[in-house]
Specification:
- 2 copies of one chain form a homodimer.
- Chain A has helices at residues 13-24, 74-86, 128-144, 161-176, 208-221, 255-264, 282-285, 316-332; strands at 3-8, 29-36, 44-47, 50-53, 55-56, 67-70, 90-93, 122-124, 146-154, 227-231, 241-249, 268-270, 291-298, 305-312.
- By secondary structure, the first copy, chain A, is α/β, with parallel strands linked by helices.
- The first copy, chain A, folds into 2 domains: 3-126 and 319-332, NAD(P)-binding Rossmann-like Domain (Rossmann fold, 3-Layer(aba) Sandwich), CATH 3.40.50; 129-314, 2-Layer Sandwich (Dihydrodipicolinate Reductase, domain 2), CATH 3.30.360.
- The first copy, chain A, has a 6-stranded parallel beta sheet with strand order 5-2-1-6-7-8, sandwiched between helices.
- Chains A and B meet through strand 9, helix 4, strand 10, strand 11 and strand 13 of A and strand 9, helix 4, strand 10, strand 11 and strand 13 of B.
Chain lengths: 340, 340
């Protein structure tokens, strides 16, 4: 039953976390192969009590692999995924390259695990800002049917990888000394600033990051009728994305009901005591696998509308954790060919 | 025609900026008196080519004053405003203490200057997060009637004054060294973090800051029917508040029409070219008196809804500039008693 597993992009921020999660969660494996760009090949990476050597990405790297968990840039995913599938591997792909293909399930493990059944060798994991949104929307949608969502994000530097976090740190050090930093990953200074632009400029004045929140949410919830208006903003936070979420439902939903719905939903923790100053923040959610919700309020004018604040570790649930959870679904459903 | 003017809270972040604006804008004055808490009394503050000595706040400090521009904590305003009025002064009050009184006009100079006519010695200036919102809403409301607003704020440390900015700087220095900072002005660490809580816990799970955005906006626009759902968040930015604003109108409004309406509105600059990476951010709006709007988009599903991003220097238009503009309205309308 145990699988031959490969982690692709094993030296990146998310890849490293995938390795830690495979350790922590004792993912059943017969073997583990680490794959990365040729520039990282030969690096030695600890895993449990061993040290594994990173191999360069190539078609042959997938020989004998049953399951590949991949976190790479989109163009890299476009190239290697066919190699892996041709060799019989199933790929859990965190890139955006295949997500919106009709024949590729886009899965959040707590939201639409059933959709995994239709896969043809690739299962996609959504963009980080989408994942925490749909984890919250799903139980509200089931309870009262979500009609409209207005979401403003506060996204961390780690969304741009290790380089993004390093950029924020260096930029902040320089800013405190009154000097300029030459940012590698951001188009504008991020230290003590906000950048209302993540991804590339797309149609109708929206960015690629914003459109992902609309169309990935529709696909995951299986409902194109939800009117979603997103604004995505990079903030000078190292890790954990936050979202201010306004939801209008078809049916009224009290704060008490919403709080119970969230508390009972898989993958959600509720920290919601304003007078005790208890709510999720990037610094207290960092390192957690659950999405944390607080500041739950009913709209002052509309009993069918709610507002809340949601923080998630974008490297964990927004990427690595969800990918490993998808792998666990595959393992549990025996959809992965057994090795020996 | 020139007035005897007092600046109350003259040593604070906003008070200092009021002095700079009175210089820059050559506000017509016969004399200028600086008033602050007893602890700041005796300080010498430059103004034009002179040096003025700060006087301690007391009833007598207002003897002979025609106009007081005041930026103090609410409790201080509750105490001194009656002293000033009893001595014949008109007070432009930036505190929250008198704002919602029916007999006190709450004025944003570009939005409801006409309401100043009804004053009885106090004119209030709104909370910073409200001011930039109503500057944007007013021209949209006139053009297409605003029915609903969903706003998420990204508020700078300077909203907590000079001490807030110092706290962010020290906290960031400590965080970069891996050590903890004992924050003076914030309930949680602000460096590389977000705090979804500004002001005090009030009714229905909202904070005082959020309720100000609702009720001050209603008062300034003279329309209690607008459904406003605000979320106020402190971000690790030194100065300038940003807001992600979703507006649903009664009538459809195209992006082109909205852009023209904003561009023609007083007090607004439009910086809106996503593909050229041109939009307002705290670092490029700092030090400006105008509210800057960008990322103007129509809702993808609703032609009556728009979303945009708005940044304003909260110490300037959010406080000092608006107060000085109110004083200029008073001077222009000769509502202030002439001195000699």
């Amino acid at each position: 039953m145990n699988m031959h597993v490969a982690v692709v992009g094993a030296t990146g921020a998310v890849g490293q976390l995938v390795l830690r999660l495979l350790e922590e969660r004792r993912f059943p494996m017969q073997s583990l192969r680490l794959i990365a760009s040729p520039r990282s090949a030969g690096q030695r990476v600890p895993f449990h009590d061993k040290c594994l050597t990173v191999e360069a990405l190539s078609p042959e790297a997938f020989d004998g692999v049953d399951l590949a968990i991949a976190s790479t840039p989109d163009d890299v995913a476009g190239e290697f995924v066919p190699w892996a599938i041709a060799r019989g591997a199933i790929v859990v792909d965190e890139s955006g390259f295949h997500r919106m293909r009709a024949d590729v399930p886009l899965i959040v493990s707590e939201v639409n695990p059933q959709a995994i059944a239709h896969h043809r060798g690739i299962i996609a994991s959504p963009n980080c800002s989408t994942t925490q949104l749909v984890v919250c929307l799903k139980p509200l949608h089931d309870a009262a049917r979500v009609k409209r969502v207005v979401v403003a994000t506060y996204q961390a530097a780690s969304g741009a990888g290790v380089a993004g976090q390093r950029d924020l740190r260096s930029g902040t050090q320089q800013a405190l000394q009154g000097s300029a930093h030459d940012y590698e990953t951001f188009a504008h200074p991020l230290a003590f600033n906000l950048i209302p632009h993540i991804g590339s400029a797309k149609t109708a004045g929206y960015t690629s990051e914003e459109l992902k929140m609309v169309y990935e949410t529709h696909k995951i919830l299986g409902d194109d009728s939800i009117e979603i208006c997103p604004t995505c903003v990079r903030v000078p936070v190292s890790n954990c994305h936050s979202e201010s979420i306004f939801v209008e439902c078809e049916r009224p939903l009290s704060v008490e009901a919403a709080r119970q719905i969230f508390a009972a939903a898989p993958g959600i923790q509720v920290w919601d005591n304003l007078s005790e100053k208890h709510y999720p923040m990037p610094l207290n959610v960092d390192g957690r696998d659950d999405v944390v919700v607080g500041r739950i309020r009913q709209d002052l004018f509309n009993p069918r509308a709610l507002s809340f604040w949601c923080v998630s570790d974008n490297l964990r649930k927004g990427a690595a954790t969800n990918a490993v959870q998808i792998a666990e679904l595959l393992a549990a459903e025996r959809r992965v060919p057994c090795a020996s």
